[in-house]
Design brief:
The protein is of the alpha+beta class. The chain is 35% helix and 18% strand. The chain has helices at residues 6-18, 31-36, 46-56, 62-68, 96-104, 112-120, 168-183, 191-208, 213-225, 231-243, 262-273, 278-288, 304-307, 317-325, 376-383, 394-402, 438-442, 499-502, 522-536, 542-547; strands at 81-84, 91-92, 125-126, 128-131, 134-143, 149-155, 163-165, 366-372, 384-392, 409-414, 419-425, 434-435, 447-454, 465-472, 475-483, 486-490, 550-555, 559-560. It has a 9-stranded antiparallel sheet with strand order 9-17-10-11-8-13-14-15-16, sandwiched between helices. The protein has a 5-stranded antiparallel sheet with strand order 2-3-5-6-7. It is elongated.
Length: 562
C-alpha cells in the first residue's frame, strides 16, 4: 500500500490556521486546538480502522486509510466544513434523490464521466460529519490504478456540479488551498504565504526570460488558488495569450499603447493588419517583442495586444505562446531569441483563394474584386460610394448591410504581391438582374479580376453560380459564368481557366436533367479558385477576413436596376 506522509502537511495546516489573524477567541478555535497547535485528533489505530472497513463492507482507499492512522478526523477551520473523516462519523451517502435527478439528465450524448458522476450519489462514502451544506464524498465506483477512490467536493448551496478530485489526498489539498484563499488578507503572513510569494516572484522572472511557460503557469495557478495577490493576474495574462483571446476584459476593445520601443512596432503592425497583411504584422511584433517592457512588477506579457481591435485577431494561440517564450522586459534566459517567428503554425502561409472552398472556413456565398498595382484605398474609391469606413469585422459588415437602411459593404485590403481586394458577401441573387461588374470600373489603367460564388440549393430551386471575369483598362476582357448546368464564356479564356475542364460537375444527374438546378460542386469550386490563384498569383488573407478588422466601404450596386 502506498504510504502518505500526512503529518508535515497537517502540521502546516494547523500552524497556518492557528497563527492566522484573530484565531484565538473564535468560535471554531477549541481550547485544545490552540494548546496543541493541532486541528486533528489522536490516531484511529489499526483496530478501529479495520472495524470501520468491516462496518462499511469495503477496504478503504490508501490515502484515506493512512490519514486515519495519523488522525481520527479533521477540523478544517476556516472552511465550510467543520469536521470530516472521523471513524464514527463517516457513512454511505445513499443519495437516491440526487442519483435519480442526475440520471434523468443523461442521454445518448452523455460522456462516460457524466454517467459515473450520476451513479456516484447512490454509492458514495460521505466524509462530511459537520458542515454548512457541503458534501465531501469518496466514490468506490471510480478507482484509479493506485486504488484511490475519486473524491468530490459538492457545495449544495451553490447550484454547481460537484468538483472531482483524483483522491482523498487531492481533496484535502484543495481544502487547504480554499482555507488560504478565504484567509488572504495583508496581515495573513506565515511560512506558506512567504514560500508561495517567493515562488511567484521566481516564476515572474523566469517568465520574462521566456523559460518553460507551462512550469511558470503551474506556479501561478497554485499560488492563485492559495489566494496570493499577484499570482492570479500573472496566470490570467499567460492564459489569455495561450488561448488567443483577452481574459477578464469584459468585451472591451482598446488600442494597445505599450511603453518603450515596442510601441513603434505595435503602431507599424496595426497599420499592416488594418489592410489585411496579418503575416507582416505578426513579423513586426515577433521580431520586436524582445524590446517590450512591463508596467512595473505586476505585468509579465504584452497581453494588451489581445484587446486591440486590429491586432487582437493577429495573435493566435500559437503566436501567443511564441511571445511568451521570447525573453523580454530585460529577461535573459532559456527561451528562444525571437528568430523563428515563421516556424510552422506561426505564419498563416496564405493558400491563395482555395480556402474559400472550405465550407467551414467560408460557410456562405461570397464575391470579390482583385485589382493589380493599386492600393486598397484606391480600390475602395473605385468600387465604393462615400468615405472609407473604420476597420470592420464580419459582424459590423452584416449590421451595415442588412439594417433598415442597409447597403452592401465590402472590406478592402492587400491580396498578395502587388494586388489589392474588395471582398463582400452576396446580398442579392446573381440572376436578379443585369450584372454591373465592378471589375470593369476598377480596372482603369490596370487589370482586375472579379469572382462571384453562389453555392446554390437545388431543393430551393437556386442553381449554383461561379462567375469569373478579367477586365483591363475599363474594358471587359474574358471570363465565364457557370450557372446550374449551363456555361457561358466570352473573350479568349486561357487554357488553364477553361470552364469546361474546371467544372465537369455541371453535368446533370438524371433527376435534375433539363431543370438547370445544379448546386455548385465543392471540388469544382476549389479547382477554379486554385486555377485563378495560379494564373494571377493572388491570395485573400483568411485570418484577416475571418477574424480581423479591415477598412470597409459602401459598395456601388453589383446588379444593375431593371
Amino acid at each position: 500500500m502506498k504510504i502518505y506522509n500526512w503529518r508535515p502537511f497537517l502540521d502546516r495546516w494547523s500552524a497556518d490556521w492557528i497563527d492566522s489573524p484573530g484565531a484565538e477567541g473564535r468560535e471554531d478555535a477549541a481550547e485544545e486546538i490552540v494548546r496543541d497547535r493541532w486541528l486533528g485528533f489522536a490516531p484511529a489505530g489499526a483496530e478501529r480502522i479495520a472495524a470501520l472497513e468491516e462496518r462499511l463492507g469495503a477496504e478503504l482507499p490508501p490515502s484515506y486509510r493512512s490519514f486515519l492512522a495519523v488522525t481520527d478526523g479533521w477540523r478544517p477551520a476556516g472552511t465550510a466544513v467543520e469536521l470530516l473523516g472521523t471513524v464514527d462519523g463517516v457513512h454511505w451517502h445513499k443519495g437516491a434523490e440526487l442519483q435519480e435527478l442526475y440520471e434523468s439528465a443523461l442521454d445518448e450524448e452523455s460522456s462516460d464521466d457524466e454517467v459515473v458522476r450520476a451513479g456516484m450519489w447512490g454509492r458514495a462514502l460521505q466524509l462530511s460529519v459537520a458542515s454548512d451544506a457541503t458534501d465531501l464524498l469518496l466514490d468506490p465506483g471510480d478507482v484509479n490504478a493506485d486504488g484511490e477512490w475519486a473524491a468530490y467536493l459538492h457545495r449544495a448551496w451553490s447550484g454547481e456540479l460537484p468538483v472531482r478530485h483524483e483522491s482523498f489526498l487531492d481533496l484535502m489539498q484543495a481544502l487547504f488551498r480554499d482555507f488560504h484563499r478565504r484567509s488572504a488578507v495583508p496581515e495573513f503572513v506565515n511560512a506558506t504565504t512567504r514560500e508561495l510569494d517567493a515562488s511567484v516572484e521566481e516564476a515572474r522572472v523566469a517568465c520574462l526570460a521566456g523559460e518553460d511557460i507551462d512550469e511558470q503557469l503551474d506556479v501561478f495557478e497554485d499560488a492563485a488558488e492559495h489566494g496570493r495577490p499577484r499570482a492570479g493576474g500573472f496566470r490570467d495574462e499567460l492564459r489569455a495569450l495561450l488561448n488567443g483571446r483577452p481574459g477578464g476584459a469584459g468585451g472591451r476593445l482598446l488600442p494597445y499603447e505599450p511603453v518603450g520601443p515596442f510601441r513603434t512596432a505595435v503602431d507599424t503592425a496595426r497599420e499592416q493588419a488594418r489592410w489585411g497583411d496579418t503575416d507582416a504584422a505578426w513579423r513586426t511584433l515577433a521580431t520586436a517583442v524582445g524590446t517590450w517592457e512591463p508596467y512595473g512588477n505586476e505585468h509579465v506579457a504584452p497581453v494588451g495586444l489581445l484587446a486591440d481591435p486590429i491586432l487582437g485577431p493577429v495573435i493566435t494561440p500559437e503566436r501567443g505562446g511564441y511571445l511568451l517564450e521570447t525573453p523580454r522586459g530585460g529577461g535573459r534566459g532559456g527561451g528562444h531569441d525571437g528568430g523563428a517567428w515563421d516556424a510552422a503554425g506561426l505564419v498563416s502561409r496564405e493558400i491563395g483563394l482555395t480556402w474559400l472552398a472550405d465550407h467551414v472556413a467560408q460557410p456562405g456565398d461570397y464575391r470579390f474584386v482583385l485589382v493589380r498595382g493599386v492600393s486598397p484605398e484606391e480600390v475602395a474609391a473605385r468600387v465604393g460610394e462615400g468615405p472609407l469606413l473604420p476597420p470592420s469585422d464580419e459582424g459590423d459588415v452584416r449590421r451595415r448591410s442588412f439594417g433598415p437602411d442597409g447597403r452592401p459593404v465590402v472590406r478592402v485590403g492587400s491580396a498578395g504581391e502587388g494586388w489589392s481586394f474588395a471582398y463582400g458577401t452576396v446580398l442579392e441573387p446573381f440572376g436578379s438582374g443585369r450584372l454591373n461588374d465592378p471589375g470593369e470600373r476598377a480596372s482603369r489603367g490596370t487589370e482586375a479580376v472579379t469572382i462571384w460564388v453562389e453555392r446554390g440549393d437545388t431543393s430551393a430551386g437556386r442553381p449554383g453560380v461561379f462567375y469569373f471575369s478579367c477586365a483591363e483598362d475599363g474594358e471587359r476582357g474574358y471570363g465565364f459564368t457557370v450557372r446550374g448546368d449551363e456555361i457561358e464564356e466570352w473573350g479568349d479564356v486561357p487554357e488553364a481557366l477553361d470552364p469546361e475542364e474546371l467544372f465537369p460537375g455541371t453535368e446533370e444527374s438524371e433527376e435534375d436533367e433539363g431543370s438547370g438546378q445544379v448546386a455548385l460542386d465543392v471540388d469544382d469550386e476549389y479547382e477554379a479558385l486554385d486555377a485563378v490563384t495560379g494564373a494571377f498569383g493572388v491570395a485573400l488573407p483568411q485570418l484577416a477576413l475571418r477574424r480581423g478588422r479591415l477598412h470597409a466601404v459602401v459598395a456601388e450596386p453589383w446588379i444593375a436596376a431593371g
